[in-house]
């Protein structure tokens, strides 16, 4: 639980540093993108801190391309 609290403190510091310049410059789209990426990163960080299994994207890529790789290997051998 201490790790989650630490993540939230760091989140607050990041927001305090990066949001005011975006608001001053009236960069609304950039602010939305900033918050979307920050939310995604925060969720992943909290999940990892709570030892929740996060699927590896490389496993998905392997599952997609493995049949193609096997087919090409059969053609070449």
Automatic annotation (TrEMBL):
Keywords: Membrane, Transmembrane, Transmembrane helix
Entry's transmembrane regions: 6-24, 31-50
Protein known as: Holin
């Amino acid at each position: 639980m201490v790790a989650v609290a630490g993540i939230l403190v760091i989140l607050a510091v990041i927001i305090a540093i990066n949001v005011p310049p975006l608001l001053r410059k009236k960069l609304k789209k950039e602010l939305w993108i900033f918050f979307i990426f920050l939310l995604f990163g925060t969720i992943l960080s909290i999940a990892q801190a709570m030892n929740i299994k996060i699927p590896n994207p490389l496993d998905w890529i392997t599952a997609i391309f493995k049949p193609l790789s096997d087919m090409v290997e059969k053609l070449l051998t």
